[in-house]
Amino acid sequence: MSTRFVLYCIILLLILTGCNRKSEEEQIKEGMDEAKKELTTRAEKIQNEKSEEKISYEKINDLPQSKDKTIKHNGVKIKILKAKLDSASGQNAENKVNITFIIKNDSDRDVTALSTFQQNFEVFQLDGNKLVKLDAVSTSMYRNMQNEIQNQNEIIVKNKTVKSVITFQTINVSSNILIKSKHLQEKILLKLN
Fold this sequence. Notes:
193 residues, Immunoglobulin-like, alpha+beta
């Protein structure tokens, strides 16, 4: 009888051990599922925050207008000359604006016109009661802007000045363009020609 009792105890112990292992596996699986859910929730939250990020027209409108449409930052001076509608023939031509600017490099580092413009400015257009950030697009080739287009990616060394152009996809052809400095609390308002 005592042998039977020991045998029953061993069988019961093996069963309980097997049950505990299954429990541990289930716990690990549940923990992994929880971690996945948490990561998914965080990613969704970040995505929602980005998509819900709205730019306040009043906030930007309250910024001071830059003097002479010029911004100086980090040893680079950028002067905005004009914003002109793209007059190229073809589809969506009326929805592009060419912004012509002069850049002078007073810093010890080499820069390019396009990258410096994009590092220093955000370009917006008013759509109803909200500001919409415009996306940079490729510039159409024109004879009268050939030099500016060639200067887009030219390396600008210290004490050199270059005239260039950058193009943005607009949302309409009637609203003004607002250029906001990323580093300074200034704006430049341009009327479309």
